[in-house]
Design a protein that fits this description.
This protein is an alpha/beta fold. It is built from 17 helices and 16 strands. The strands form 3 sheets. The protein has an 8-stranded mixed beta sheet, sandwiched between helices. Strands 13-12-11-14-15-16 form a 6-stranded parallel beta sheet, covered by helices on one side. Strands 5-6 form a two-stranded antiparallel sheet. Helix 11 crosses helix 14, helix 13 runs antiparallel to helix 14 and helix 14 crosses helix 15.
Length: about 450
C-alpha cells in the first residue's frame, strides 16, 4: 500500500476535508488528531454551545485537553477545525470527501440506532464533491454485531450507501484516562463492505494511527469492539462473583497477586460497570447473536452487573445508615461521563428505601445532578456532620484537595465504603467506632 490514493493526496494537500458527525469525546478528538496532522475537518453537532466553543478553539469537554497531550494553536485551529449545527452547511460542503460517524448508538442502556440511521440518510443526500470521487463513510461508533447487514436490508439499500460510498466500520478503542492510549498510539481495526475500499480507508486512518489492522470485512470489525469489551465485562463480573463466593477472603489482595502472572488482567470487586462500552458490550453480543442462550457466561455477567449495586446497597443499610454522601457521579475518574454510571443505580436504590442521599462531583453542576438524579448535591464539601456514611465511587483529582481530617470533626460517620482505593488504609480522621471498607476486602458486604 505504498502508492498514495487520490483521497489521501487531496486531504494532505488541504484541498479536501473530513466531516465529523458528532463532536463529543470521540468526534472532537478525531478533529484534533487530524488537525495535528494538518488535515481540515468540519464537525457537526446539535449542541450550539459546543459548536461555538469549538470554533473559538476552546476544549470544554472535561479532561480531554490533558488526555490529548498536545495543544492546537489558534492559527492551526482556525485553519483546520470548524464546526456547525447547520446540517445544510455540512451537507453542501463540496470539499468533504470522508465522513466520520461518531454519534451515540445507545439510549437508556440499550442499543438505539435512530440517530445512526438519520446521519447516514443525511450523508446519502450529498451531491457530488468538487473532485468527482466516491466519498468515504467511516463508522467510529460502536455497533451491535450484524447491525450494518440488518440495516442494509431495509434502509441502507434504499439510500444506496454501499453503492455510492466507500463504507468502513472502525470503532474506537481510546482510554481517556491515559495519555499513552490514544488514537495515535493504540492499534486500530477496520473492515470495509468492499475490499476495493481497503487501501483508501487504510491510508486515511494511517494519517493519525501508527498501526492499523485490516479485517476481512465490516462484519468482522463490527464484532471486534463488542467482543473485546465483552471479555472485560465478564472478567470484571467474575471478580464480583469471587467476592460473593468467598466473602471471608480478601479478594482484592488475591486478585492483585493473580495479576502478577504475565498473562492475567487485574480487576477488583466493586460497583457495576459504567460508560458507553463495557456494560453495553455483552448486551450487544447477546443481541447480535442468533443463539444468545449459548452465551451462558455472558448472560450471567449481564445479570450480576444489573443487581450488584442493590446487593452492595443492602449491605450498606445493614449498618443502620440513614444519610449518605456519595463522591462521584462519573462512571470513571476524571471523566465527565455519567452514562450508565453505577452511581445512578445505587442512588435510585437508596431513594426507594427512603434514604437521604447527597451527591458531590465537582465535574457536574448542581443543575446537571438535579436533572440526572433529582437528589441534593454539594458545590463544595465542607463538613461530614450531616452524614452517617460516605461512599467513594471514583477518585477525581479534586478529591485529593479535600481536607478530610478537618471536615470530619464532630462527624457522625459510621462507615466509609471505598470503591476507588482512595485511601491505602483506614483513615485516622474517622471516629473510633466507624468502619472503613474497601470493595473486595474480606467481609466488605457484611
Amino acid at each position: 500500500m505504498t502508492s498514495k490514493t487520490q483521497h489521501f493526496k487531496l486531504l494532505k494537500s488541504n484541498k479536501a476535508k473530513i466531516a465529523i458527525w458528532g463532536c463529543g469525546y470521540i468526534g472532537y478528538s478525531t478533529m484534533c488528531f487530524y488537525a495535528k496532522n494538518n488535515i481540515k475537518s468540519f464537525g457537526y453537532d446539535i449542541d450550539i454551545q459546543k459548536v461555538k466553543e469549538i470554533n473559538k478553539g476552546k476544549i470544554n469537554i472535561y479532561g480531554l485537553k490533558n488526555w490529548l497531550g498536545f495543544n492546537i494553536n489558534k492559527k492551526k485551529q482556525k485553519k483546520f477545525i470548524k464546526a456547525t449545527n447547520n446540517i445544510k452547511e455540512i451537507i453542501n460542503d463540496k470539499d468533504v470527501i470522508c465522513h466520520f460517524v461518531c454519534i451515540p448508538t445507545e439510549k437508556n442502556g440499550k442499543p438505539y440506532l435512530n440517530y445512526f440511521r438519520e446521519i447516514l440518510k443525511l450523508i446519502s443526500k450529498r451531491k457530488s464533491n468538487n473532485f468527482k470521487i466516491k466519498e468515504c463513510i467511516i463508522v467510529e461508533s460502536t455497533l451491535m454485531p450484524n447491525t450494518v447487514d440488518k440495516l442494509f436490508k431495509d434502509y441502507l439499500k434504499k439510500y444506496k450507501i454501499f453503492d455510492n460510498f466507500h463504507f468502513a466500520v472502525a470503532p474506537r478503542r481510546d482510554w481517556f484516562e491515559d495519555q499513552t492510549k490514544t488514537l495515535e498510539t493504540l492499534d486500530r481495526v477496520f473492515g470495509c463492505k468492499d475490499k476495493s475500499s481497503n487501501k483508501i480507508i487504510f491510508q486515511i486512518l494511517s494519517i493519525v494511527t501508527k498501526k492499523v489492522h485490516i479485517a476481512t470485512n465490516h462484519r468482522v470489525s463490527e464484532l471486534v469492539k463488542s467482543v473485546e469489551n465483552c471479555y472485560r465485562h465478564v472478567e470484571i463480573n467474575l471478580a464480583n462473583e469471587l467476592s460473593l463466593a468467598y466473602p471471608e477472603k480478601d479478594m482484592r489482595e488475591v486478585l492483585s497477586l493473580v495479576g502478577t502472572k504475565w498473562n492475567m488482567n487485574t480487576y477488583y470487586p466493586g460497583f457495576g460497570t459504567g460508560g458507553y462500552c463495557i456494560p453495553l458490550s455483552s448486551k450487544y453480543i447477546l443481541g447480535g447473536s442468533k443463539y444468545p442462550k449459548k452465551l451462558k457466561i455472558v448472560n450471567e455477567a449481564v445479570k450480576l452487573d444489573s443487581k450488584i449495586n442493590k446487593i452492595i446497597g443492602r449491605s450498606v443499610l445493614k449498618n443502620n445508615i440513614k444519610k449518605i454522601l456519595i463522591l462521584g457521579l462519573s462512571y470513571k475518574s476524571n471523566l465527565k461521563v455519567h452514562i450508565l454510571s453505577p452511581t445512578i443505580d445505587l442512588v435510585n436504590y437508596f431513594k426507594k428505601k427512603s434514604i437521604s442521599v447527597t451527591l458531590y462531583d465537582p465535574l457536574f453542576s448542581s443543575f446537571e445532578i438535579k436533572k440526572i438524579l433529582n437528589v441534593k448535591s454539594l458545590n463544595k464539601l465542607t463538613s461530614f456532620q450531616s452524614y452517617h456514611a460516605i461512599i467513594i465511587m471514583v477518585k477525581h483529582n479534586q478529591f485529593y484537595d479535600i481536607n478530610f481530617k478537618k471536615i470530619s470533626r464532630k462527624s457522625n460517620l459510621k462507615l466509609i465504603l471505598d470503591n476507588a482505593n482512595f485511601f491505602k488504609n483506614k483513615p485516622n480522621f474517622l471516629p473510633k467506632n466507624a468502619i472503613y471498607k474497601k470493595t473486595g476486602q474480606s467481609n466488605w458486604l457484611s
